[in-house]
Amino acid sequence: MRFSIAALALPVAAQAANYSGSLRPQVQFSPPYGFMNDPNGLFYDAKRDLYHLYYQWNPYELVAGNQHWGHATSQDLYHWTNHPAAISPSNPDEYIFSGSAVIDGNNTSGFFPGQDDGVVAIYTVDTAEAQTQNIAYSTDGGYTFTKYAHNPIININSTEFRDPQVTWQPETKQWLMTLAYAADKVIGFYTSPNLRDWTHASNFTRQNLPGDQFECPNLVKFAVDTEGSKHVLFISVNPGAPLGGSGTYYLVGDFNGTHFNPDTSDPTLYEFSKDNYASQWYTDLSAQSSPISIGWASNWDYAEEVPTGELEGWRSAMSVPRHHTLTKVKGAWTVTRTPFHDLSSVKSSPLRNRNHPDGVTASFANVSSKAIHFEIDIEGIDAANPVGDINFNFTSPAGDHLDGGVVLDTGLFWLDRAGTHLYTVANSTDFTPLSNTSISVSQGRFAFSGVIDRSVLEVFLENGTQSATVTYFPTAPLDRLAVGTSGLGHGTRVGLAAWGLDSGWYDASRSE
Ligand code: FRU
């Protein structure tokens, strides 16, 4: 269904942002109000030391539709300032779909005479007739954009052709666009000297990937010690991802300026849970920075139904910003992920642990954000004969519980959101409670860390080589972590450390 903006007639900036709701993440970004999905146009402005985040935004409703590019900025990716929508539809029949943004420092586009910090946004315009690729330029650092007079820049008369990600290729001195022929399950590469004129370079496909459509591809260059650099192609698939609904895969390989050649034919599933989709990767980072991404912490299976809509007037948060490396794990290139700067700009004092008959507990009832970072280390495991279980439970005084654990005997890590009662599999059969993955204890130790933030849990296992993002909806905020053990082998020790996190919102309504 298409919505008429004029008919809805709600002024975009009319509603005050309220970040105090008990389901509102305090460390992950969420929109001031309305419905949010993919991150868009992530770029870093080195001149002003500022990260920009745009996002798919319906400012009028709590479901997808009326897509605009919402906008926020941050100096540390945790403290955000909201701004008015950066790109809006020109008429009620078009939507501004996902895309990317770059700084055109050399004015290749000609939009920025005498300027070295012009910003070009590259995005899909969705209409009933076609999805076309379009550009808009900003002379004020990415706050306001002028649509190019000769849009679209690419039109192949397809209704399933979208999500351009543009990066500068220093080797070929060309811009590269990576985008999806969504229903064909094909990724296209185009090149351009000036962001206006584009030449098709090649196509890449993996028809055997699960899922009906390819969306939001990102080709990301990683520096690696041994081989100089490698490229990783991230492909989001929806619907029909292996855990249901939407999910993301990646393939590691080489890009020669026109063609992507993967090292292996087997793509890797990025996460072992349902709630991380359409990650985008920052452009214009300094050469020293490792790649940084932000993903959409939800799933198309239930994103438009979750209770934050009715209760608090917003739907969907982003993942924490993540730092990445590409590392060989058992001979295979693996993308690692950890929270950006180890959350240092929001991490406050350590929580005190107490011994309790159930195990070790850390209360965060006095942490006003109700967001914490935690690390759990299991050491002294008999690698030849690992035995025993470690369980961790986040609980609320109202009787909600979000649970997880490690089964050493079988090498299994699991998470279960069934005990958070505001929204469960009874509300949506797609809101499946369990996520799990295989882990290795062959080195005699296993460690993981995580961020829990009111309605989103993210965990990072085995030096960030595996991760999960799980949304959950308790009737009251979870405010206590208990770690218990049973049947551990002699000499196995479990350590817990946890820190309160400060809210990333300086005040409840930091909006322009
Ligand atoms: C992915 C997606 C994109 C599209 C956008 C529309 O979540 O479907 O393919 O550009 O969302 O909001």
Structure characterization notes:
- The protein is mostly beta strands and 512 residues long.
- It has 2 helices and 36 strands.
- It folds into 2 domains: 95-300 and 321-340, Tachylectin-2, Chain A (5 Propeller); 346-501, Jelly Rolls, CATH 2.60.120.560.
- The strands form 7 sheets. The protein has a 7-stranded antiparallel sheet with strand order 25-26-35-28-29-30-31, with no helix packed on it. Strands 24-36-27-32-33-34 form a 6-stranded antiparallel sheet, with no helix packed on it. It has a 5-stranded mixed sheet with strand order 4-3-2-1-20.
- Strand 7 and strand 8 (146-147) form a beta hairpin.
- The longest helix is centred in the middle third of the chain and has 5 residues, at 308-312.
- The protein is globular.
- The model is unreliable at 1-14 (pLDDT under 50).
- Bound molecules: beta-D-fructofuranose (FRU).
Looking at this protein, list some descriptive labels.
mainly beta; 36 strands; Jelly Rolls; 512 residues; Tachylectin-2, Chain A; seven-stranded antiparallel sheet; binds beta-D-fructofuranose; disordered N terminus; single chain; globular; six-stranded antiparallel sheet; 2 domains
